[in-house]
Structures are given as structure tokens and as C-alpha cells.
TrEMBL record:
Family of the protein in this entry: Belongs to the tellurite-resistance/dicarboxylate transporter (TDT) family.
Gene Ontology cellular component annotations, sorted alphabetically: plasma membrane
Molecular functions per Gene Ontology: sulfite transmembrane transporter activity
Cross-referenced CDD domains: TDT (cd09299)
Keywords tagged on the record: Cell membrane, Membrane, Transmembrane, Transmembrane helix, Transport
Region (Disordered): 27-46
Protein name: C4-dicarboxylate transporter/malic acid transport protein
Topology class, membrane: Multi-pass membrane protein
Keyword hit for Ligase: no
InterPro entries given in the database record: SLAC1/Mae1/Ssu1/TehA, Sulfite_efflux_TDT, Voltage-dep_anion_channel_sf
Entry's localization field: Cell membrane
Record-annotated membrane-spanning stretches: 68-88, 100-119, 139-160, 172-198, 210-229, 241-262, 283-311, 331-356, 368-387, 399-417
Amino acid sequence: MAHRRREHDYDFDVPWQLIDGEMARAPQDGVDSEQHKNRRNQGIQKRSIRHYRHATGRWGAALESFKPIWFAIAISTGGLGLILASPFPYSAPWQLRLASVLYVFEIVLFTLFCVLTLARWIIYPHVAVRRALSDPDELCSYAIPPIVLLTISALTATQVSTTAWGGHAFTLIAYVLWWIGMFWMFATGVVVVVTCIYTGNQMDRSMTPVLFMAPVGLATAGVEAGNIANNAFELSARLAIPMIVVAYFVVGTALFVGIILYTLFFHRLLAAGLNPPAQRAGLFILIGAAGQLSSAFQILGSAAATYFGQYKPQATSATFWEEQTGNGFDYASLLFGVLLLGFDYFTLCLAVVGIADVFIKKQFSYTLTWWSVVFPTVTLVTAWLQLGKSMDSPAFRGLTAALYMLVVVVYLLNWVGTIKGIVTGDLIWAKSELQREDGMLKKARDMEKAGESEEV
């Protein structure tokens, strides 16, 4: 009984400013939401992690601290492979072989990170839930794994179904993977947004671009649907049309959610300035939303022009499924793609200014956030690739090739930083949840003593 009382001595009320430091520093004016006003002076009763399974050693703490941001390495790898597998300018046979290598490497990375993520949630479920609910960046990063699955589905269609030993069977595998990834991505986006609303820990002054991963993922579903429809071996119109129509649905969701988030984030920039240096690389995620939407509209428009004329439901007089309708979708999608591409360059300039500021002020330190530079820029390359194909423009094809080589350089530099961080342990070793909670407990008690001394 005494032991039980000692355990409960570790339970405590946590002031909200220890959960969200930005809330404590925010001025108490009319700018904050009512939710934040109500919570600022309240505490939340926290049950000690000692009551649940938690890490007691160094490796356990590393597993507790494993975050889904690691999946950004996998989507960057797959994104580079998809560009090489597309009608890349100045293509050569070695590019397709390299795309196959990147495809296999992405599957290996995805499998490894999935195993670690599942192990974390199975072994330390309470730690995983606590960190997801208290850290908006970690919560929003859970939109990355389904993006990886979507890129794998597209590479399966382009790299395997088109081979002599692959064929239609792998077209069906890619098709099924896409539907799984699309539903996974949509469900994740809903859960992320609803959880951010419910917890109230996403303040506009401290908002980071990681929240944009939800519309980026939904737009990616549209891009990969177009890739599968345009490149898979012997995909029938009966299979392609439902995928194309649903892809337009999710792209529409991504478009309007993206507009809302762009509005909120630009208000955040005007009200509070750029993000801290450690988060600055995340500004490139702004490129990913508009860039992937531009690519999605262009690729889906091409797929609609190909398949609408081939699809005609039996015993119906519907005039929608006509070649002219597909061409209309293609032209309209191209217009949307060009408009979004223009806005994408505006966000690119903003991201470059933010990154340049970090290096000029010598505030650079390597974290996994720097992988945010690769995949969003890949979406920009994809948009230019589709536009160069539609316009048959040598200038756009040259720009696509040059930008792709720049992304490859950034990709390799990120691998240098990641390997170095793994070797030194900076990216692996971290405080356990117990150590973090003990520090929070000490701060809460110090604040309580300080309040009592002020009353005296």
C-alpha cells in the first residue's frame, strides 16, 4: 500500500504552459482563441508514465523517440525514382535501371520504418499517444507513411508491370496498393485535423508547415493515380475510370484544405515572423502542396483524355463519358496546373529566403527536418516535367533536368548529414518519456513553490 502511494506521488497537475510553451508566451489579448484563453491558467492532471510501460534503457528511449519524420527519407527516394521512371528529358537506359534501384531502396526503407513505428506503438503505446497528442509536428508527420505507400504503388506500375516478368498481375497489385494508400491518406488527414482541433495545441503563432503534409498526401494520391493510369501495363478503362474520378475527389479536398492552410500560415508569418532556425527547412513543404496539386491536375487531365472515350457504362445514355469530355478535363486541368505552378514559385522564393537567413546568421544545425527540402522540390520538378511534355518545350525540359540534378545534390547532402547523425547518435539517442516527465514534474513543483512564496 505504501508503495502504491509512493507511485501516485508522481502524479501531478501540469500547467498548460509546460505542455505548450508558446501558449505561455502569447500575450493575453483578444488574438488568442477562446480555447487557449480557457486553458492558459488551467492545469491538466497527468498520470505518471510509471503506471504504464515505458523505457528504462538507452535503446528503449531511442525507440520511444522514433518519429514518423524518418519516412521523409523514403518518400524522397521514391520521388526521385518516379521522375526517372516518367518521360524524363534526355532519357537513357541507365535511368530506368536507377529508378528500379531507388524503388527497391524505398521499399526497404518503408519496411524498416514501419517495423520501428509498429514496435514503438506496441511496446510503448502510452508514450506514443502522449507524444502524438502533445506535439503537433509529430502528429502531422503521420501523414507521411501513406504517401510512401502511394509512391510505391506508382513505381510498381512503372517499374514492374511493364517488364517481361511483371505484366498485368503487377498492374493489379499497384492498383490495389493505390486504393489502400488513398483511403489511409484520407483517414489520416481527417484524424490529424480533428485531433489538432480537439487538443487545441496548434496555435497560429507557432504553426509549422508540417500541417501541410495532409493536403500534400491527398494531392500525391492524385498524382500516383495518373501515373498508374498512364503507365501501367494493360490497365482497362473499367479499372482506370473509378480511380481517376476518386483521384479528382481527393485532389479537390487537397486544393481547398490547402487554400485554408495557406491562409492560416501566411497570417502566422505576418503575425510572428519566420519559424525558428531548427524548423526553417520545413518552409519547403509549402512548395509541396502547390507543386503536387499542379502535377496532379496535369497528370489526371492526361489520364482523363486517354480513358474517358474508352469508358461507356452499358444501357445508359450518359454523355459524360466521351472523348470530348476527357479532352475538356485535360485542358481545364492544364490551366489549373499552370496557375498553381506560378504560386509554387512564390512559395519557393519564400522558402529560399528563410533558408538563406539561417546560413547567413550561422544558425544551421542538421536535423531530419532538412529532408523536407527534397520531396517538395521533387513535386516542383514533376510539375515542370508534365508542363514540358504538354508544351513540347525544350526550355522547360532543360529546366526540369537542371532542377532534378539540384534535388539529387540536396538528397545526397541529406544522406551525409543523416549518416553522420546516426554515427554520432544525435539523431538516435534522446531523453526517455520518464526523464522528460521528471523534468516537467520538477518545473511544475518549482512553479508551485514560486507561487506560494509570492503569496507570502
